[in-house]
Design a protein that fits this description.
- The protein is α/β, with parallel strands linked by helices.
- The chain has two domains: about 120 residues, Class I glutamine amidotransferase (GATase) domain (Rossmann fold, 3-Layer(aba) Sandwich); about 80 residues, Sandwich (Immunoglobulin-like), CATH 2.60.40.1180.
- About 30% of the residues lie in helices and about 30% in strands.
- It contains seven helices and 14 strands.
- The strands form three sheets. Strands 2-1-3-4-5 form a five-stranded parallel β-sheet. Strands 7-8-14-11-12 form a five-stranded antiparallel β-sheet, with helices on one face. Strands 6, 9, 10 and 13 form a four-stranded antiparallel β-sheet that branches.
- Strand 9 and strand 10 form a beta hairpin.
- Helix 4 crosses helix 7.
- The termini are far apart.
Length: about 240
């Protein structure tokens, strides 16, 4: 409270949250679309090789416009079968036998980012069983942006692609723009944030057509292009 500007901004954020409580709650309660395996055994054995891939996968998925969650090795060991549509295994070679047994019951799409994953147990003993999974090539030279481009291509195949796309003048997705969408009040709500160090101008596209939107926080119409300054957030409702 000794910094008046900070206190003012906190107050303004609270006003925004109160006025948009329904919309913000809907975003928070939206179901997870894709989860990343948090594997303690891999953290011990693979170390940076696992951690690097996990962090890159999280960033890449965030810029794809899907809601991300985590499935932990401990949850699997407790017999909790994941219910998310897509589960990403980020360069993890080791996983406990108990967790592997539960993972065999998973009915969603299992995606291995790396080769020969989940091949050893927590005691570094190789296992003969293999899971039915799709593989995405990975090595340490692959960047977050590289994975982002691969994930973007795979989202329709995984059936979790966002309905609303924010595209540049060349009708291409823009790296560095995090979005989340949810159905609320008979429309599609989109939360967007610019994590680049430069402003961007985007257009909202739904079903291949450019659409207008309403800024939930200001009430203004976004009829042409959506402009985002660095670290600026927009909460918009699509008007088809």
């Amino acid at each position: 409270m000794h910094r008046p500007a900070c206190a003012e901004e906190v107050g303004l954020v609270n006003y925004d949250l109160n006025r948009a409580a329904k919309e913000v709650t809907a975003l928070q309660q939206a179901p997870v679309q894709v989860a990343i395996l948090h594997d303690s055994s891999a953290m011990i054995y693979e170390g940076l090789a696992y951690d690097d891939c996990s962090k890159k996968a999280y960033m890449a998925l965030g810029f794809c416009g899907v809601k991300i969650g985590y499935v932990t090795e401990r949850q699997l060991e407790a017999g909790i079968v994941p219910t998310v549509p897509v589960l990403i295994v980020p360069n993890a070679i080791h996983i406990s036998d108990a967790a592997f047994t539960t993972l065999q019951k998973y009915q969603g799409q299992l995606i291995m980012v790396g080769n020969d994953l989940l091949a050893n147990n927590e005691y570094d003993k190789p296992r003969s069983q293999h899971l039915n999974a799709k593989t995405i090539a990975y090595n340490r030279s692959i960047t977050e942006k590289d994975l982002w481009q691969v994930f973007l291509e795979k989202l329709p195949e995984w059936q979790i692609a966002p309905q609303v796309k924010l595209l540049d003048a060349e009708n291409k997705p823009v790296w560095g723009i995090e979005t989340k969408e949810v159905q609320v009040g008979g429309g599609i709500l989109v939360n967007a944030c610019n994590y680049l160090n430069r402003p961007v101008t985007l257009k909202c596209v739904l079903n291949g057509k450019k659409v207008s939107a309403k800024d939930v926080l200001t009430g203004e119409m976004v009829s042409g292009s959506l402009s985002l300054k660095p670290l600026e957030i927009k909460l918009i409702k699509i008007i088809d």
